[in-house]
Amino acid sequence: MTAGVSISLFQRAAAAFAASVPADPADDGFFGPRSVTWRVAADLSAPVAGLRSLLLQALHPLAMAGVDQHSDWRADPGARFASTAAYVVATTYGDTATARAAAARVRKIHDTVHGTDTVTGLPYDANDPALLLWVHAALVDSGLAACRLYGAPLSPAEADRYVAEMTAAAELIGVPELADVWEVLAAASAVSRPGWARELHGFGDVVPPEREPVRQVLGVLDAVYLGEPGVLEARQRLTLRMRASEAPAPESR
Question: What are the chain's domains?
């Protein structure tokens, strides 16, 4: 990255910050000045967290496909950086109305972001809860990692509080609440049992959930599962073995 580009990114991020912090907020928003979220966002390590978060998010091929096919980040990386920074600042420091408005704008953009990844051949949709959770988890994990390594470290209790607080940001952008996830999963599990088993378990009158909401919930759980240490690597090993087994056997001569 050239010095000129670096200065431009710095200036645009600063402008986004100045414009996104309300001068006369109606309330403390979803977090407030006593929250751990404000402390993490204001920490000197925040630039490290921001860049780390973007790099982690880009490791998901479907998330990256959406960015690549629906933005001009190659021609103007500063614009995307500034818009992302503005959103984070508005939802973190803004009053409730400001945060909700910022989230509504992003969700409206997400409605148009869908297609097919040219590398994997898989379809993607920016409103996919699993993708939204991936992006959110990268943001939260990066904030904690940057504070631990280069900023004001948080106690274990403070780190847990930060993760809990940030569920508000996840819900703003469309990630389902964890309670909703388990309710849908429990209903799907109940209706998939044979009738006699449902009766014995006391689930005879459960309303079958629709397929698509169940699929979205399973995607969220899968994203959480992949975030556990070693799971992604283990799954990649299994995928490689499965692909190898599908390859045609060499002809004997």
Answer: 3-175 (1.10.490), 176-253 (no CATH)
